[in-house]
Amino acid sequence: MIPHDHPRYQSLVTREHLAECARSGIVSWEGLISHGRGEAFDYLLGEKTSDSARRAARVAAALLRTARYPVISVNGNTAALAAREIAGLQKASGALVEVNLFHRTPERVAQIESLLCDAGADVFSGEAERLLPLSHDRAWCRRDGMYRADVVLVPLEDGDRCGVLVEMGKKVIAIDLNPLSRTARTATLTIVDEVTRALPLIAEACATLSAEECRELVAMLDNRVFLKEAGIEMAGRLSHALD
Ligand code: ATP
Fold this sequence. Notes:
By secondary structure, the protein is α/β, with parallel strands linked by helices. The chain has helices at residues 9-24, 29-44, 51-66, 76-93, 106-118, 159-167, 182-186, 195-208, 211-219, 223-241; strands at 70-74, 96-99, 129-130, 140-141, 151-155, 171-175, 189-191.
């Protein structure tokens, strides 16, 4: 029982929810460690969306809106934290939703797909193949899904697959609280923000940007600027907090 007046109430509720999802198999035990790393970086952001991340979310929307074949890749942590937000972004962007896991079993895939469906997402399922040049199970995807995509959104990704997707010529949008991660540095665009905060911002921008604005935002995209701004934001907060 977590008391409502606890200063870290929301964080504790989220942790308890993730622990429950780990017990039921949706989140891997290792996924809990990833969440801890994310929380640490979110502290440095003051647990709120920066202006820079807000702008990056608009660019993400522009990339999704101008894509021919956009796909949202979902893993266990993302499904556990943000199934409803994924469904909302799918509606706003028209992207396909596909499950992709590091710790992959048919049961886990089915469990996560069903959680997403219950939240209102239309999940692209069916026969997966080992199509990506990776030695781990994130190599498994659908030929008419992620393999064919020109733009892939990868919330909470690992750097290997992000790199491979970029090498395949795809535009990769990462959502990652750690601006130093391999994923953040390899992606075409990184939104340095918490996944449940970032997804609704992308959905909102998908619904409001004009076609002309989308083209301009994509043409001006420079991920190094967003990573640098995230670093400056975090360093600034850290030095102020310790004054
Ligand atoms: P890389 O291979 O890219 O260097 P890593 O080994 O740190 O990454 P993982 O352990 O797979 O990657 O963790 C995924 C990333 O997701 C971490 O960088 C973490 O900061 C980030 N992360 C965790 N939870 C969240 C969240 N709720 N919102 C946004 N990012 C998150």
